Amino acid sequence: MSNLELDRRDFLKGAVAGAVLLLSADVLQATESQKTDQKPIPGPPVAIGVIGLGTWGRQLVTTLGKIPSAKVAGLCDIYQPYLERAQKSAPDAMAATDYRRLLDSNDIEAVIVATPSHLHRQIVLDAISAGKHVYCEAPIAVTVEEARDIATAGKNSKGVFQVGLQGRSNLLYKHVEKFVVSGCLGKPAQAYAQSNKRQQGRRMAPEPEREKELNWRLYRATSAGLIGEQGIHAIDLANWYMRAVPLSAVGFGAITCWDDGRDVPDTVQCIIEYPNNVRMVYMATTASSFSSEYSLFQGSQSSLLLRENRGWMIKEADSPLLGWEVYARKETCFDETGICMIADATKILAEGKEPGKEGSVAPEKEPLYCALENFTRSIRENLPPACGAVEGYQAAVAAIKANEAVLSGTKVTFDKEWFTV
Predict the structure, then answer these.
(1) CA pair distance 20, 305, nearest whole angstrom
(2) Which one of 27, 43, 67, 218 has the lowest number of neighbouring Cβ atoms within 10 Å?
(3) What are the residues whose beta carbons fall under 8 Å from the beta carbon of 124, sequence distance 6 or more?
(4) Could you tell me the domains of the chain?
């Protein structure tokens, strides 16, 4: 009989693998894009120029330096100290204070536009005209008109045009999306998202003009507000999972903490309406960091709570069992039992391990790394980007109009034509 006995670990591995087979084909089979993501990217590293070297621009440079398929070939910022600081991370890159020098260089294949949002338009249009592949940070613009100009050029570009909504490349979000498509939520009821981080956001500079440039996010003329600069990522996730664009928004905003001359609210609340009577509540404040950032999707059978690198499914007591839940890793989530969503579950199972019990519960690669790697793969393999012109434009329009609702304190009904590009 000893030959017939199974080791408990082997039994559980087999049970988990068998239980996974109870899921729909959409959930359990690796998609073609997932298979592609695992293949080495062919050709030499893509020579990339980074335009805009503020805090986020420097993060882009640092991350690109870790990606085998990318090479930082150019650096550009109008502020010399920023340029010099970035050069320490990429000493061999061309350095310039005029972005057109990067566009004129035959040694640079692609550019990342990481300047303040209100400065994107001309740089993007010039880069596309110069034949460069373009990665444009989100939001692509702070007005619908400029966003449409950028999206139209990006859609018609012969090269790759990708928008920096890295949630579309997030391994966890991509994994959870398959569960959403399979109907795990049941009948969708509502969504909620928040971005809380205590920070004044005001930066000092020796000259008033430079200080105004640094603090562009604090003024309505140059910023789409908290919902446009931060909330756009939650809105894009909702657009993606719901397979829809919003119908309307009503919002409120106020300067509750940082009364320092800014005219952009430091605290906002917005209700965004989607088809089928589903609404998303978005809230953000720079007065408090409590509970940080997350998105929550609730339905009649389960709820999904997602942070950037962690996710949980909380099932209703009367929802049907799919068979795999008993083997999944569980954690307490808001006083409920949450089933951990493991982004690399398929890979972990293939290695003969138990997801969530052997190995990390967080994805191996950070979302920004995945987004930039996807950009290089799209260039080398002529593939659609993770977030293209249409998706990036629709998220921008929704965020810009939601910000208008916040500033006016009234309801803004969306025109379907706004989302067409």
Answers:
(1) 21
(2) 43
(3) 113, 134, 136, 140, 150, 153, 154
(4) 37-168 (3.40.50.720), 171-364+389-419 (3.30.360.10)
C-alpha–C-alpha distance, residues 162 and 378, integer Å: 9
Bridge partners (DSSP) listed for residue 193: 282, 295
Residue-wise pLDDT tens for the chain (421 aa)?
Answer: 333 333 434 433 443 433 333 343 344 444 445 556 678 999 999 999 999 999 999 999 999 999 999 999 999 999 999 999 999 999 999 999 999 999 999 999 999 999 999 999 999 999 999 999 999 999 999 999 999 999 999 999 999 999 999 999 999 999 999 999 999 999 999 999 999 999 999 999 888 899 999 999 999 999 999 999 999 999 999 999 999 999 999 999 999 999 999 999 999 999 999 999 999 999 999 999 999 999 999 999 999 999 999 999 999 999 988 777 878 899 999 899 999 998 866 555 555 566 556 567 778 899 999 999 999 999 999 999 999 999 999 999 999 999 999 999 999 999 999 999 9
Which of 317, 292, 316 has the alpha carbon at shortest distance from 304?
A: 316
Instruction: Scan for tokens 């839940």, then name that residue.
Output: 325
Cβ neighbourhood burial of 385 (10 Å; 0-12, 13-18, 19+): buried
In 10 A of CB 76, how many CB atoms?
29
C-beta neighbour count of 43 within 10 angstroms: 10
CB 289 within 8 A of CB 196: yes
Residue 46 has φ and ψ, to the nearest 5°, of -75, 125
Supply 75's token pair. 């650096």
Do 72 and 93 touch, CB atoms closer than 8 A? yes
CA atoms within 13 A on the CB side of 96: 15
Distance CA 284, CA 266 (A): 8
> Residue type at 361?
V
